[in-house]
Amino acid sequence: MALHPQVEAALATRRRPSAEVIAADPYEQLVAARAAMEESNEVECGPAIPLPVVVDVDAGGVPCRLYAAGVGAPVFVYVHGGGWCYGSIDTVDRLCRRIADRSGCAVLSVGYRLAPEHVFPAALDDVETVLAWVRKEGASLGVDPSRLAIGGDSAGGQLATVAARRQRDAATPLDYQVLIYPAIDPMTASESYDEVGGYGLDRESMRLAWETFVPDPAARFGPDVAPLAVADLAGMPPTLLLTAEYDVLRDEGADYADALLAAGVRVVHVRYAGVNHGFARKLAFFDAARAAADQIAASLRAALTF
């Protein structure tokens, strides 16, 4: 399928760095990228769906935001994307609201620590802290932590599925996972990097993200960083995995879906045609974003209302 015209409109919205920023040191460039993402959030993501419960909480020391439409709902822990270096609870606020509204699940969005200020395993530790906290304290929040799923986009998808595997290994398995164009391969080796690297994400920026998140090269090959380094994926949660046609992470996401299937995990892999990396949170720009949010909500409702 051809590139959707909505992609061009989306790419034109984000503030581009000035010559001074480009010439500055890498950390200043990162700060500018963080600011640009936050500044464009309203126009990219659109108006906020009102919900009965939208509250910021301290989840064992990790800032989170809880969205809920009712009492006793199952819980979907959501981990935002942004190359482990940027993004926030606010940049996925509209997506989390729509999922909570359409699914009937409570959504707990995680404000994990970012690199380079906090490198691996800080972000993963934060996600695991939140999972332990919601299991312990969820009932007092009016949610049902006995029905617990996890998900995330891009870097957040990597953190989510690593946390899910660690929960499996700890004999506290999660019920479901949703992975939106997850970052899976620290080697950035797949063909999609060569085929579709001109649509907002490329090999150079992904390599920089991996290196910033995990400065120790040897650590990038362990299972807590590279999900496909796990010897056995059997027993992972049933999975909805979404990829985008014009996304460099497309092929590694497909490879991970295939590996989960080969291990006997129930997987639905959907490739959204014509769109690029990052589309799912941009509800104001992409028809596909609204479709993806509603697909995620429907899958959560089916998986967790038992």
Q: Which structural class best describes the helix and strand composition? A: alpha/beta
What distance separates the N and C termini?
38 Å
Q: What about the largest sheet?
A: 8 strands, mixed
- Globally, the shape reads globular
Q: What do the pLDDT scores average to? A: 95
Please tally the β strands and state the result: 8
Q: What value does the Rg take, in angstroms?
A: 18 Å
Proportion in β-strands: 15-25%
Give me the side-by-side strand order of the main sheet: 1-2-4-3-5-6-7-8
- Please write the string of helix (H) and strand (E) elements: HHHHEEEHEHEHEHHEHEH
What does this structure look like?
The chain is α/β, with parallel strands linked by helices and 306 residues long. Helix content is 40%, strand content 20%. It has helices spanning 5-11, 19-23, 26-39, 41-45, 93-103, 122-141, 155-169, 192-195, 203-213, 250-262, 287-304; strands at 53-59, 62-68, 73-79, 106-110, 143-153, 176-180, 239-246, 267-276. The chain has an eight-stranded mixed sheet, with helices on both faces. The model has no long low-confidence stretch (mean pLDDT 95).
